[in-house]
Write a structure and sequence with these properties.
The structure holds three protein chains of three kinds.
Chain A lengths: L50 H16 L4 E5 L3 H6 L10 E4 L5 H14 L6 E7 H6 L2 H10 L4 E6 L40 H7 L4 E6 L3 H12 L5 E6 L3 H4 L6 H11 L5 E4 L2 E5 L8 H5 L18 H18 L9
Parallel strand pairs in A: 1-2, 1-3, 3-4, 4-6, 5-6
Antiparallel strand pairs in A: 5-7, 7-8
Helix pairs in contact in A: 1-7, 3-5
Chain B lengths: L1 E5 H11 L4 E4 L6 H12 L7 E4 L3 H13 L4 E5 L1 H6 L1 H10 L4 E6 L13 H5 L6 E4 L3 H18 L3 E6 L7 E5 L3 H7 L16 E2 L8 H30 L7 E4 L6 E6 L2 H14 L4 E6 L1 E3 L3 H8 L4 E6 L10 H8 L6 E6 L9 H12 L6 E3 L4 H13 L6 H9 L8
Parallel strand pairs in B: 2-3, 2-4, 4-5, 5-7, 6-7, 11-12, 11-14, 14-15, 15-16
Antiparallel strand pairs in B: 1-8, 6-13, 10-12
Chain C lengths: L19 E9 L4 H14 L3 E7 L8 E9 L14 E4 L19 E5 L10 H6 L5 E4 L1 H8 L6 H12 L4 H11 L2 H26 L5
Classes of the chains: A alpha/beta, B alpha/beta, C alpha/beta.
């Protein structure tokens, strides 16, 4: 594994310059290139502002470049699968298989085994699913895949609920979020404060070669992580936060902003780990209070009054404590300013 | 070459000869010896290249096979009973996608109540999933059917389930003629997929199909199975020519030429039935036997043709449809619609209860003498049943039925072992 | 054939054309009841017979009563029923005698082979002894033989040596060959030696009981 890539510091234009005019060609994003694969091509049926469609295209195009196009993708049931393959059309320009909801990791392991046996071990395999298909119904198969160290990069597109079926709660749903099965009613509105199920840390507990988290707000970072993941063999796990305008009740144009805010509040720590140890983190330059993130999402609107002031400071406080804990755990904020 | 060998081991050896490329399995009684056998063969290097994957559930096992088959590898797994049910979503998925996976089903009862012994309830639960289901009568046939299964599956792009009675066949040691690698290689060509995940020629497999096309896609699965009706006997004939013995096919008959009464069954119980029929024939009763080998696709035309002039059919089956009656019987009755034939059902062997000639004899005799019972539960202890029904009528809190019955029957029997 | 063993009846292997010889084997989990059936079936197979061996199954559990069945025939064996009227009974564990209905179905001219150093009378089997032909109720201290030759209290292969002597349904050579196919060379050799000693023991005991060679 090569040394962790130094994040490019964009002081003037931030890390969001997809245009890349200030970068050397080799450092430009895959998406910026005219020869990008469009593994997930346009014409699919995703909602306006869908974070998952964006994340999938980003990740798979990067993987296609890293593997020179030698890639097979296995997809679980979910939004991505449904909006990308309405019979008789498909948006996928890559070899792609959809089996069931809970078995994508196992199916991917089977594909990888077959390719190996056939002497085509140069063809790499990606398994991908939403949070439901990864953290809940796919968890048994995922853990089995990790335990065997099957040669698969598994990507979870986490929009924090079962969106395709109408926004029901999954074990990735954050506390206090409204979903159709955790309505914002009663003394504890929204999703209860439970133990959570931190998949990246569970993946690390399996000590697989590479685990990373990323968001659609930092394209360079996401592409670099996919590239790093494809440079090694064995089980690798990438957990990408992908805001869902519909389920999060947010403006479609806020998808990338919300992803950025999730990272900058510390609610979604961005880091990399190898064999169970954290090896790199994306520092938060200017920490934002969780309110800035929550207030833009209708799924948290019961925490605020109509002026936008906190109506449930107790709940917000608990969420802030979660963010602070995450920041402390991963060392996301340096004491020196501007680091 | 002839071996005196455990059924599971014969199947493991034969499956290995078929050169599977990905084998994955999760252990469940009574399939364990099969998978252990294949695993050992792979680990020793005797079967290569082959990936043997120990998975974390039956659902994962068939899912791995789905991925492997879609990527162009010959794939195999095995399960039974609860394991089949746990992977049922994947069973329908493989059937719907048309992936030529071969799976051994070591027939075992499905709980509750939990029971590890043989019956056919597991196979019956999957009969509409689009898999070809073949039932072996002997361990020789069980081994042979796997070779034919790979050929059939890959030719038609349809998954095939080879059913063999758990314990009764899997754990029985008997004579089996195992073929050579060269013989199997001559019979079974390498797998040429109809659809495959290939980056050089990418396709999307597993699309969502809405009302506008779903019926057509499903009908095509049906059409594949109807093709199997034609191919199964042809493959069996090719097998006979290549290996010198008769195995497989849609069905086989025994002493049915002039039979008035024909007994129909699946699997190993046919052996017991044939012995009994010989004895009844010696007593002048014109009874014959119809052994169904291909249960799905159901060989309705072949059944009609095999009946000859028989007027009574007695189905002996190891499963039943709760609240109604037989399962095989229903298919048989459907097949003989319009013919002047009565169909009666004997449900026997549930949960591994031995089916004995002495118990079957009066049932067959009654049928042969024109007094068939519509539905018989063989060797049912009516007293135990009635006592439990009485308990339930008396007390709301009558307790778990299974426990009550076990207590009634006496878990430690003085007479049985 | 070990030296000093009394000559056999000379009648040759029994003719099983159109007939099946049925055996039931009783013991406890861990004593090799299932393996005994398998070995016997292999021995019969090696002699050109058809043979079928299968256990009466339960979840694996050491110490629990286990039963296995063997059929030997001159032609294909089709039935799958348990053996209800055994021509021969082999009992690996005498503690089963009054716990389980061991002798159910054994015919008057049936064979019973018991693993015990005790006398059948001392085991409360006087009734059984009157039912059976005297040379067909045989005891062998198979566990002791196993301990002495093999170092483990597993009497199954040993008893098959006694079975061969008692019934002549298989030869000792075939039993030894079956043992050799199943176990590692060292273990096989020791079991075979124990089986051979059991064979001699039964021949001698039968001679003693009837004053004649076994038939």
């Amino acid at each position: 594994m090569t040394a962790a890539r130094q994040p490019v510091k964009f002081y003037q234009v931030g890390s969001f310059a997809v245009g890349n005019r200030l970068l050397e060609p080799a450092e430009r994003t895959v998406q910026a290139g005219p020869d990008r694969r469009n593994s997930l091509n346009s014409g699919h049926r995703a909602c306006q502002g869908c974070g998952e469609a964006l994340g999938a295209r980003y990740a798979l195009d990067a993987a296609m470049r890293a593997t020179a196009g030698r890639l097979v993708a296995v997809n679980a049931t979910g939004c991505l699968e449904v909006f990308s393959t309405p019979y008789p059309e498909t948006s996928w320009q890559i070899a792609w298989l959809h089996s069931l909801f809970g078995n994508a990791p196992a199916v991917a392991a089977g594909v990888a085994a077959a390719l190996r046996v056939k002497g085509r071990g140069d063809v790499r395999v990606i398994g991908q699913a939403g949070d439901g298909g990864t953290v809940d119904i796919g968890f048994g198969c995922l853990s089995g895949m990790f335990e065997r160290n099957d040669d698969v990069l598994f990507i979870c597109y986490d929009n924090e609920a079962y969106m395709n079926t109408g926004v029901q709660r999954s074990s990735a749903t954050p506390p206090a979020a409204r979903t159709a099965t955790t309505e914002a009613v009663g003394p504890q509105p929204g999703n209860p404060f439970g133990q959570g199920k931190d998949l990246p840390r569970l993946a690390m507990a399996h000590e697989i070669p590479y685990v990373a988290t990323a968001t659609v707000a930092d394209l360079h970072d996401l592409e670099a992580k996919v590239e790093r993941a494809m440079a090694v063999h064995g089980s690798r796990y990438l957990h990408i936060l992908v805001p869902c305008p519909l389920g999060w009740e947010a403006a479609p144009c806020d998808t990338i902003l919300l992803a950025r805010l999730a990272a900058e509040t510390g609610l979604f720590p961005v880091f990399e780990a190898e064999h169970g140890e954290v090896v790199a983190v994306s520092k938060i330059r200017r920490q934002r209070p969780v309110e800035d993130y929550l207030v833009r999402q209708g799924r948290f609107k019961h925490l605020f009054d109509e002026t936008g002031a906190p109506a449930r400071p107790d709940v917000i406080g608990r969420l802030q404590a979660m963010a602070d804990r995450s920041i402390a755990r991963y060392g996301l904020v340096d004491d020196e300013p501007g680091a | 070459m002839l071996h005196q060998i455990e059924g599971s081991k014969a199947v493991a050896e034969t499956v290995a000869l078929c050169r599977p490329e990905v084998v994955c399995a999760y252990p469940i009684s009574p399939q364990t010896h099969i998978i252990e056998g294949v695993g050992a063969i792979v680990k020793s290097g005797r079967l290569a290249p082959c990936e043997f994957i120990n998975v974390e559930s039956e659902f994962a096992a068939l899912s791995v096979a789905i991925g492997a088959s879609a990527a162009g590898a010959r794939s195999y797994t095995a399960t039974a009973s609860q394991g089949l049910l746990f992977m049922m979503e994947a069973v329908y998925n493989a059937g719907g996608l048309g992936l030529p996976i071969v799976m051994t089903l070591a027939n075992r009862a499905v709980g509750a109540p939990i029971n590890i012994w043989n019956d056919h309830s597991d196979a019956m639960s999957a009969r509409d999933a689009g898999w070809v289901q073949l039932f072996a009568e002997t361990n020789q046939e069980a081994a042979d059917l796997h070779i034919q299964a790979f050929a059939l599956a890959e030719e038609l792009s349809v998954p095939v389930m080879v059913c063999m009675d758990g314990f009764i066949l899997t754990h029985a040691v008997e004579r089996v003629d195992l073929p050579t690698q060269a013989e199997v290689d001559r019979f079974l060509p390498p797998y040429e997929p109809r659809q495959v995940l290939d980056p050089d020629d990418p396709v999307s497999i597993g699309a969502m199909v809405g009302p506008e096309a779903f019926e057509e896609v499903r009908f095509l699965a049906h059409a594949r199975q109807l093709q199997a009706l034609a191919r199964i006997p042809e493959i069996a004939a090719d097998f006979a020519a290549a290996f010198g013995r008769s195995s497989g096919g849609l069905l086989h008959t025994y002493r049915t030429e002039d039979a008035d009464t024909v007994v129909v069954a699946l699997g190993s119980v046919l052996g017991t039935i044939k012995d009994l029929v010989d004895s009844l024939r010696d007593e002048g009763l014109r009874v014959g036997v119809l052994g169904i080998t291909a249960f799905r696709p159901f060989p309705a035309a072949a059944v009609r043709a095999a009946l000859g002039g028989a007027t009574h059919l007695v189905t002996v089956e190891k499963a039943f449809s709760v609240g109604f009656g037989g399962v095989l019987s229903t298919d048989i009755a459907m097949a003989v619609t319009g013919l002047p034939v009565t169909v009666s059902t004997v449900v026997a062997g549930l949960g591994g209860r031995p089916i004995t000639a002495s118990s079957l004899r009066p049932v067959f005799v009654a049928a042969a003498q024109g007094r068939p019972e519509r539905l018989t539960f063989l060797d049912l202890d009516r007293g135990v049943v009635d006592r439990e029904l009485a308990r339930m009528a008396r007390d709301r809190r009558s307790g778990p039925t299974a426990e009550n019955v076990l207590r009634d029957v006496g878990v430690v029997a003085a007479n049985g072992f | 054939m070990p030296e000093g063993v009394i000559e056999r009846s000379g009648a040759g292997p029994p003719d099983l054309a159109g007939r099946t010889f049925e055996v039931r084997i009783h013991g406890r989990g861990g004593q090799g009841v299932v393996t005994a059936a398998e070995l016997l079936s292999v021995a019969a197979f090696d002699e050109g017979r058809w043979a079928q061996a299968f256990p009466s199954f339960g979840s694996e559990r050491t110490g629990a009563p286990v039963v296995s069945f063997v059929r030997i025939s001159g032609s294909e064996i089709r039935t799958r029923e348990p053996v209800v009227t055994p021509d021969a009974l082999i009992v690996l564990d005498a503690t089963l005698i009054h716990q389980v209905d061991l002798f159910s179905g054994v015919a008057a001219d049936g064979y019973v082979l018991l693993n015990t150093a005790a006398d059948p009378d001392d085991l409360g089997l006087a009734d059984l002894a009157t039912r059976l032909r005297p040379e067909r109720l045989v005891t062998v201290p198979a566990t002791e033989l196993a301990l002495r030759h093999v170092g483990r209290a597993v009497p199954n292969a040993v008893l098959l040596g006694g079975f061969a002597a008692m019934t002549e349904m298989v030869s000792l050579d075939s039993v030894v060959a079956a043992i050799g196919e199943r176990f590692s060379p060292r273990v096989a050799e020791r079991n075979a030696a124990a089986a051979a000693e059991a064979f001699e023991y039964v021949v001698a005991e039968t001679w003693e009981r009837t004053g004649a060679a076994p038939d």
